[in-house]
Design a protein that fits this description.
Layout (H helix, E strand, L loop, with lengths): L1 E6 L4 E8 L3 E9 L1 H5 L6 H22 L9 E7 L3 H18 L3 E5 H7 L12 E6 L4 E8 L2 E7 L5 H11 L7 H8 L24 H13 L8 H30 L3 E5 L6 H12 L4 E3 L10 H13 L28
Parallel strand pairs: 1-4, 4-5, 6-9, 9-10
Antiparallel strand pairs: 1-2, 2-3, 6-7, 7-8
Helix pairs in contact: 2-3, 4-10, 5-6, 5-7, 5-8, 6-8, 7-8, 8-9
């Protein structure tokens, strides 16, 4: 089965073609980071307009690079949520229209299911069942994945997502947008032990998380040093390291508890924050002690991309799922609301 996938949930326009026998045949990604950086964050209207400009040229580019004609496709997949309403409508409108014009079935894909399945794009990807940590700018969620579409939530952030906290702390320190990767880079030069930040909600049972208080603690530390303007370069590095260690340790502790609670031996970590080097190192070390294998997406598939949507769409099309003709998106769409779906492709 060969599927065209379209991702447009936020500020990146992704297109890819995935074949269940030959793998990923082609992909293209356009990031709007430079445009939104001037505003310190994503401007939804600008994001939607840029998806309108980029999508069809990217579809033509990927179709050409993959040597694929519409007649060789078996379906079109598009992100239907969660995400920015306008951005989702652009991708869904283009995807559903192409499918209708080409006489192909279309399938709406849950954005977070795309991330969840992204490690399966790797040669030695995970099999169901497994526990997953989905950690990004919009989500921090632990769940038990029993089969395609059969997801049981275990815990989530009660306030800010981890990636959101990274970006907000970076903004406090004047690092610009997107700040998470820049904060992680600063942390590489930090002095270990100078600051000790709290590990939120780790002193109580359960798998829910919180990062808002950690963000406030960071702000108070900055103010105690005289404010952002008074920070030395080393102060910034040390604060970045202390914040990153606290956020990462919190995630590791919650993952360890989730594995103990479920007895699972496979952990999938996906989403933008899964690219964080410290998170990978500390998770690998902690899980190895428990005989748990950890799976990550390739670095190119940690952030939003069309490949994960094409792959998820191929599995859902193989399982018989189809989209009706009306175009509908869900800016808010709990992953647990997906129905279990058998699948023949992998």
């Amino acid at each position: 089965m060969r599927v065209l996938g379209i991702e447009s949930s936020c500020d990146e326009t992704g297109v890819a073609i995935f074949d269940t026998e030959q793998g990923l045949l082609g992909q293209a990604l356009y990031s709007q980071i430079d445009m939104h950086a001037a505003y310190g964050g994503v401007v939804p209207e600008l994001a939607s307009r840029d998806h309108v400009r980029r999508l069809l040229p990217l579809v033509r580019q990927v179709m050409s690079e993959a040597g694929t004609t519409p007649e060789q496709l078996d379906g079109v997949a598009f992100t239907a949520g969660p995400g920015l309403a306008g951005a989702l409508l652009v991708g869904a409108g283009v995807g559903r229209s192409l499918a209708y014009g080409w006489g192909l079935p279309a399938v709406p894909v849950h954005h977070m299911e795309g991330h969840l399945l992204a490690p399966m794009l790797e040669e030695d990807g995970p099999d169901f069942p497994f526990v997953a940590l989905l950690v990004s700018g919009g989500h921090s969620l632990l769940l038990e994945a029993r089969a395609l579409g059969d997801y049981a939530p275990l815990g989530e952030s009660v306030d800010d997502a981890a990636g959101e906290a990274f970006d907000k702390v970076a903004k406090m320190m004047g690092l610009g947008y997107p700040g998470g990767p820049r904060l992680a880079k600063l942390a590489e030069s930090g002095t270990a032990g100078r600051f000790r930040f709290p590990r939120p909600m780790t002193d109580r049972p359960g798998l829910d998380m919180s990062f808002s208080g950690l963000k406030t603690f960071t702000l108070n530390t900055i103010n105690d040093l005289g404010g952002v303007a008074a920070l030395s370069d080393q102060d910034r590095c040390d604060i970045a390291l202390a914040f990153q260690e606290a956020a990462v340790d919190t995630l590791v502790i919650k993952c360890r508890r989730a594995m103990e609670q479920t007895g699972a031996k496979r952990l999938v970590v996906a989403g933008g924050v899964s690219a964080n080097v410290m998170l990978r190192e500390r998770l690998d070390a902690a899980m190895a002690k428990k005989g748990v294998r950890v799976f990550y997406p390739g670095l190119a598939y940690c952030t939003d991309n069309g490949a994960m949507i094409a792959y998820a769409g191929a599995l859902r099309l193989a399982g018989g799922e189809r989209s009706g003709l009306p175009i509908a998106v869900r800016p808010r769409w709990p992953l647990a609301e997906l129905a279990p779906l058998s699948q023949d492709a992998s």
